Amino acid sequence: MASTSDIRKGLCIRYNHDIFKIIEFLHVKPGKGPAFVRTKLKSVTTGKVIDNTFSAGHKIDDVRVETRSYQYLYPEGEMFHFMNTDDYNQIAIQKDMLDAPDLLKEGEIVSIIFNAEDNSPLSVDMPTHVILEITHTEPGVKGNTATNATKPATTETGAAVNVPLFINEGDKIKIETDKGTYVERIKE
Fold it and tell me: What mean pLDDT comes out for the span 118-127?
């Protein structure tokens, strides 16, 4: 058993007969009244995100988990296949367990969180940034730069991302996986 002071991003807890992963939290200490922790929880079974508030000192039932590195191999329908980088065992995981499946490139290394009790996969943690090549985008219009103008672009994995006007087809860009947003162009 843990308490609200142990809450951190990525912690898996048992709540309402399901296992949830904490994706956001905020400790709040108002001027009047008791402190509390505002959390955003994502169900590892359904993928549904809920908001919940725990009072300070509330006991939470944490789930013991193990994190292992896996390499993404290929998609097959609604399943994504991964290989353990240590012992080369392969597993298949449902597409809905991934936060951003359209940003996943073959060969990418991810962290998969397993329930230590029954060894079932709970969630897939993508790297914070991925580098993808632009396969299609319209040319930027010169003189259209009064503000931070962006245009839609398609990456090699099929993901749609808004990029600045100076990005062209064939450029490699860094994308933040949490928000699916452009970070910078990668020079080779």
Answer: 82
Q: How far apart are CA 84 and CA 66, in angstroms?
A: 13
Q: What is the mean pLDDT of residues 59-67?
A: 84
Q: If pLDDT is split at 50, 70 and 90, which confidence band does 88 have? A: confident
Q: Which two tokens stand for residue 124?
A: 């897939």
Task: Give residue 143's pLDDT.
Answer: 63
Is 65-125 a CATH 2.40.50.140 domain? yes
Choose the CATH number for 2-62 among 3.30.420.40, 2.30.30.30, 3.40.50.150, 1.10.287.380.
Answer: 2.30.30.30
Give the CATH H-level superfamily of domain 129-186.
Nucleic acid-binding proteins (2.40.50.140)
Q: Are 159 and 102 in contact (CB under 8 A)?
A: yes
Angstrom distance (rounded) from CA 20 to CA 15: 7
Single-letter amino acid code for the residue at 186: I
All residues at 6 or more sequence positions from 134 whose CB lies less than 8 Å from its CB, including other chains:
153, 154, 155, 156, 163, 167, 168, 169, 170, 171, 172, 173
pTM higher than 0.70 = yes
